[in-house]
Give the backbone structure.
Amino acid sequence: MNNNGLALELKGISKRFGSILANQNVNLDLRYGEILAVLGENGSGKTTLMNMISGIYFPDEGQIFVNGEEVTIASPKDAFDHKIGMIHQHFKLVDLFTATENIILGIEEEKKYNLAEAEQSVCEITERYGFEMDPKKKIYNMSVSEKQTVEILKVLYRGADILILDEPTAVLTPQETEKLFSVLRKMKADGKSIIIITHKLHEVMAISDRVAVLRRGEHIATVETAGTTETALTEMMVGKKVSLNIERNEPEGSVDRLEVRGVNCVSVEGVKLLDNINFTAKGGEILGIAGIAGSGQRELLEAIAGLQPLESGEILYHNPQNGKIENLRNKTPQQIRDLGVRLSFVPEDRLGMGLVGNMDIIDNMMLRSYRRGSGIFVDRKKPKDLAETIINDLQVVTPSATTPVRRLSGGNVQKVLVGREIASSPTVLMAAYPVRGLDINSSYMIYNLLNQQKKNGVAVIFVGEDLDVLLELCDRILVLCGGKISDIVDGRTAKKEQLGLLMTKVNGAGKEGEVTTA
Amino acid sequence: MSEENKSALQPEPLKEETPSNTVETKREKRGILPEIHLTKRAGVTLKEAILVRVIAIAAALVLCAIITVIFTGDNPFKIYATIVRGAFGKGRGWVTIHSMAILLCVSLAVTPAFRMHFWNIGAEGQVLIGGLATAYVMFKWHESVSTPVLVILMLAAALIAGAIWGLIPAIFKAQWKTNETLFTLMMNYVAMKLIEFFLKIADKSGSNVVDSRLLGNGVPDLFGVQYLLNVVIVVFLVGLLYVYLRYSKHGYEISVVGESENTARYIGINVKKVIIRTMILSGAICGLAGFMLVGAASHSVSSNTAGGRGFTAIMVSWLAKFDPLMMILTTLLIIFMARGADEISTIFDLNKSFSDIITGIILFFIIGCEFFIRYRVHITRRTVKEKEGE
């Protein structure tokens, strides 16, 4: 075998979906018996790349080598034939089957179907790598972590030598994560090559031998974990360290605008999403919200927007026109608007919630305004003017105002959405990750728009993931952790490390510490 | 080692030229593995789209001709001529137009629901129940009340019955997220059985059709022209639905709910209300079709009154991409094919199945070509090393 010691090698892999370039000329290699972390922001093309290795997608360009041989991977079966197995983020298991039944499902073997024998071999694998698993347990009785174990066993049972795990820790508790990591280390010792996708830096440091960083679909670099730092990785992940210098004026004449009092919120499964949230957003200031993804940011904004039912608590709006205080709790978005509350919301899911992808820019402008007027017909004249104004003012790159927004690039989609939300001259503007996936110029345009709103006396709530931006842009920063407020700090004096600490603080215990110690 | 270096270096100059695979084949003698894969087209020009469709129809006609020659030995061109004659020959045009009108009406009915991504396959039942309501009013009062009153009663009964048949699955969908496809399908059978029940009560002879002997003459012909009323109603309805879906607030809400329920919620649209309202409309228009069939065309009712139009309408609506104006063309296509197929099976003394095969092939190509409008098929030649060290 002529393989330069490489289990897997990708050369010049590109993949596009319509006009979106998901991967561009990616080169990547995986050695025998190593754990390679693939790191990148959301939308940087990590999952797409892995899906091409495991046969879900087929690359438009490029070559894949397994053990030094060029191969064609056109289906997951091809991938298995080359001993590549992927553990997806969303499990694909039959609930009513036992672990073993799921594991052997779909395997074509010459010999007779023998469950007992299969169970025996499953047990051998679990013992070898130190899994904890009852092969007779039904899937519906299992915890998320157990289900994940079944997925991993499924891949191992088929004899995979290259394992790809797509964000395996996203659904695990710190303890479960540590268990998973110890299993991965044993597999590595056994000579398996492992790719793990994640965007959690501390996990990268804890588990991987090397790190490959992707940014906007391109492979930036692969570095030895031992020779790098979290800061260096962050820079690679988000691009050049640019001094941000976002303009920040002193808030003027700020008045209380939105008061959130003792808000609690529980998911359908009974998990607490928001836990006793108290804060006040003031007109003329930008309130930042920081936190690890999934700490309750979305629920909080949706609760204010009338999309998330509350368990308890109050959301009070101070109307600047008549000085009245309105309780927005458990009101629908329409009822909130009928109260005269001018609340604008730029949701995280731009095309799935904020806009309709298949509609053109004009019709998307209409989402907010189509009810105006008493007639039964919609007025497209004003939305058309607004669409043209936004296209001009915000430099939206589009063939015309009648182009479906899903055809636009991410940054232009966001300009359309933010433009529309600002056009309704709000008194409260909530923006969730408004610069995610945007290039520097578009990002700055969004920051300027938010600052403009702040100057106009709007209470701006900005949910962000980039701590540097939060620190430069926001007047105050509210830090969420596990649905709770860890603290509200002053954006001018707070330090990045301080925010990082607050973000991981659950009941005083450091999440990070638990993972890295073992 | 030198071998490795060579292969490691080789990709470099290639990338500068072009990433095409043909260069690779030149570079080294390799085994070739053809590979087909698909990519979504970024945008399709109207010209390309029309071209693909024309090719599809031509291909369908060629295939049909081949099959005709092989299995029947008849001249395919004569067969095609007969199809045209069957639809538009002497004395046929008006009947064809009426068939179009009825099918178009049912297609228009399912369209608002489809635009909302509510997969109503219960048009058959909604038409039947509308027809049954009409028939019942006729059966009960055709002798006792004056014609204008009777017509109003028939129409009202048909609209209400159809609307209820649409409303029931809508409520379940809105409240409990039941599967509307299965639900509306089952409602078809309920409607069918209700008609059979009515037949038993109305006609003691055990006939499976109740006709004008028991129902009276229903709606008088407009200006003495048979079917004219139905055609006028449907022409009017096409315009109405076109405007409703495109320019009304309701139509806009339907599109938003259909495209993204999340966006609809976000913007404050009452999704449940829209689902229920739209299905009432959808059902009522089906009811209207039932009224036209029973009250203004055949003056009879049977469990076959809808005649599968509720299902054909689904195809008409999809083919027209839910655009009421386009639906005139797709209805024409379907009715044309169906009537032509009937004609060839009688003229050439062919089995009815054969004309169905011809229709099937043509529709398959027309629908299938949409795939090529959406996706581009790449046939690449992946290269795989055949032998080590050549």
